[in-house]
Task: inverse folding
């Protein structure tokens, strides 16, 4: 048994035949996210500029038209480049910067969770709260309040609306809009920055083969 485990371990650490699958999966996951975000900004560009500019209900940023254009172009072009695996390491940099800006300007005040946990017993903050981390404990307390509001909202909908129809496509949740998703995308982009687009199914790979035919890539 031990010999078999050693063989498997050696094979996993030396075989490269399928090592392109992980960066490919990251690219295919991230590309539609970025393209969709950029496209939505582009088709309602005036509203995007207004949101960037307004300090009351928006971000209150300087040079809103310029920043809105840069964000839109970065997500659209960056998403397309990720899709085909071209200039992957380079385009990951502005995309990571975009995620940092989004976390700092939009999501940071809302904490970690993108969707507010409504049950303290199943919240992913529970293990950290048991370790005594204040932010996690606060999250658990908040989830109790969220649970009460969700319960009340469900009651109102059942009494006054077609609850089954309203929840047919998904359960009722409270959007928290924390940094969770933006941080996840940042980490995925960070992996692509260090690992590249992967072999075989990326333009970067074939360019590198063309430019350095004697190098094992």
Result:
């Amino acid at each position: 048994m031990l010999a078999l485990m050693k063989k498997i371990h050696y094979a996993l650490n030396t075989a490269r035949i399928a090592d392109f699958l992980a960066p490919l999966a990251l690219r295919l996951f991230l590309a539609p996210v970025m393209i969709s975000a950029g496209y939505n900004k582009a088709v309602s560009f005036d509203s995007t500029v207004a949101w960037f500019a307004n300090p009351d209900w928006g971000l209150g940023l300087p040079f809103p038209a310029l920043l809105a254009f840069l964000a839109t172009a970065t997500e659209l072009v960056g998403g397309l480049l990720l899709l085909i695996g071209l200039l992957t390491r380079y385009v990951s940099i502005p995309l990571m910067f975009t995620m940092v800006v989004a976390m700092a300007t939009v999501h940071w005040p809302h904490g970690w969770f993108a969707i507010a946990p409504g049950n303290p017993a199943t919240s992913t903050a529970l293990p950290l709260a048991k370790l005594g981390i204040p932010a996690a404990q606060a999250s658990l307390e908040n989830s109790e309040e969220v649970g009460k509001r969700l319960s009340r909202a469900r009651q109102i909908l059942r009494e006054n609306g077609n609850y089954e129809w309203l929840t047919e496509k998904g359960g009722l949740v409270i959007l928290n809009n924390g940094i969770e998703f933006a941080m996840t995308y940042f980490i995925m982009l960070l992996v692509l920055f260090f690992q590249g687009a992967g072999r075989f199914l990326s333009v970067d790979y074939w360019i590198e083969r063309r430019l350095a035919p004697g190098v094992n890539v």
Summary: The chain is about 70% helix and 0% strand. The chain has two domains: 21-111+177-217, 116-174. The radius of gyration is 22 Å. The mean pLDDT is 92.
